[in-house]
Amino acid sequence: MFSYTKNILMFLWLCAKLTDGILGQDFLRQHVDNINYRHSCLVMGSTTVPLWVCGTAKQICRVQAKDTVKIPANSRMWVPVKIPLADHITPIGLVEPSFELMGKKDMCALGGVVDTISNEIVLNIINYGSESTTLYKNTVVGTCESHVENSDTCRIAL
């Protein structure tokens, strides 16, 4: 369930149940621009809201800067990050950069596989702009989704 009051989306839960329709279709038509099932998120104007899915489907969470840091122009820096809702995803997560951050600032988080249980997660953030820029605490730098390795196959290094 979700509640929507004065442009604040609180929670959204989708469960793996067979239904004849989607409850809240009037809300979705009025406020949601795009539902991205591949990346498990809603797009509402300039805001991306992750979907929380019950069952075995893919989970996704925000990745935020842990502290405020200043990144020099045309450089990169290892930045401590946090995943506030990491208990909703698997111990291994796949981080993807925030396109919203790239659109607002000339910086990008390099994606990759992270240990979501660790308290010391760092991401490589690139400032590809011509001026130094500040990445403020709690800025969303990307998303992290559950990742499960397929252990039934043999691994061959070429």
Topology diagram in text:
Layout: E1 4-5, E2 8-9, E3 13-14, H1 25-31, E4 34-36, E5 41-44, E6 47-50, E7 52-53, E8 60-65, E9 69-71, E10 75-82, E11 92-97, H2 99-104, E12 107-109, E13 112-115, E14 121-127, E15 133-135, E16 140-146
Parallel strand pairs: 3-7
Antiparallel strand pairs: 1-2, 4-5, 5-6, 8-10, 8-16, 9-15, 10-14, 11-13, 11-16, 12-14
Output the radius of gyration.
18 Å
Low-confidence stretches: 1-6
* E-strand count: 16
The CATH architecture of the largest domain: Distorted Sandwich
Helix-strand string: EEEHEEEEEEEEHEEEEE
Q: What is the CA-CA span between the terminal residues?
A: 48 Å
Shape: globular
Q: CATH topology of the largest domain, anyone? A: Deoxyuridine 5'-Triphosphate Nucleotidohydrolase, Chain A
Spatial ordering of strands, largest sheet: 12-14-10-8-16-11-13
Count of helical segments?
A: 2
* Proportion of residues in extended strands: 35-45%
Descriptive key words:
158 residues; mainly beta; Deoxyuridine 5'-Triphosphate Nucleotidohydrolase, Chain A; seven-stranded antiparallel sheet; three-stranded antiparallel sheet; 8% helix; globular
Report on the structure:
The protein has two helices and 16 strands. By secondary structure, the chain is mostly beta strands. It has helices at residues 25-31, 99-104, and strands at residues 4-5, 8-9, 13-14, 34-36, 41-44, 47-50, 52-53, 60-65, 69-71, 75-82, 92-97, 107-109, 112-115, 121-127, 133-135, 140-146. The termini are far apart. β4 (34-36) and β5 form a beta hairpin. Mean pLDDT is 78; it is low at 1-6. The longest helix is centred in the N-terminal third of the chain and has 7 residues, at 25-31. Helices cover 8% and strands 42% of the residues. The chain folds into two domains: 4-53, no CATH class; 60-146, Deoxyuridine 5'-Triphosphate Nucleotidohydrolase, Chain A, CATH 2.70.40.10. It has a seven-stranded antiparallel sheet. A three-stranded antiparallel sheet has the order 4-5-6, with no helix packed on it. A two-stranded antiparallel ribbon has the order 1-2.
